[in-house]
């Protein structure tokens, strides 16, 4: 049985391994939540967390904005189970098991009103360009006019500015080496291998593998900033720009027209 303490232990390990790829992860979380607080227009915003994983961003957002309502969406049964167990009963937080690539996901949430802000961190690069367009088209059906889309991720400019992209990556790599001069934490693959070996998570692991095998998924498919900007413009977002950046790690913001 997956207990709150066990789930929280796994999420703590998840956060640590994520920091191996994002030495300034907490700084980006802070900048994103600053933008929600400043741009939502109300103290009790309705927020969608897209590709939420175990709810690391959702929990931090509610720590800062306890009046918010966060609907956290993902299709990974193991990460959703960890988040649901660790945050069971937390006011303002609901997890939803939905595939963002499938039309209709937004309507199936049964939201009580229009969304003020949609957020995501280190998740949407897994979508193909087509999947990203599908997701954003769905999002605009529930995001209010003037609502924000905030996406924190590694988004490269190599397709248009290869020299700048090289420098951005070098800045990130140097920050990582400084942050982990004493040794790197376990990486993404090591975390998943450890989770797969835990008998408490075995059923969830099997379900995850079944879903991955059934999906047409090929790893990181949309790592270029231009892909995300083009998809946002196609979906009808007006102003689009970077609010925060360190190397190729950036917080992309778009305002729904």
UniProtKB/TrEMBL annotation:
<dbReference type="InterPro" id="IPR029063">
    <property type="entry name" value="SAM-dependent_MTases_sf"/>
</dbReference>
<dbReference type="InterPro" id="IPR041698">
    <property type="entry name" value="Methyltransf_25"/>
</dbReference>
<dbReference type="GO" id="GO:0032259">
    <property type="term" value="P:methylation"/>
</dbReference>
<feature type="domain" description="Methyltransferase">
    <location>
        <begin position="47"/>
        <end position="147"/>
    </location>
</feature>
<dbReference type="GO" id="GO:0008168">
    <property type="term" value="F:methyltransferase activity"/>
</dbReference>
<dbReference type="Pfam" id="PF13649">
    <property type="entry name" value="Methyltransf_25"/>
</dbReference>
<protein>
    <submittedName>
        <fullName>Class I SAM-dependent methyltransferase</fullName>
    </submittedName>
</protein>
<keyword id="KW-0808">Transferase</keyword>
<dbReference type="InterPro" id="IPR050508">
    <property type="entry name" value="Methyltransf_Superfamily"/>
</dbReference>
<keyword id="KW-0489">Methyltransferase</keyword>
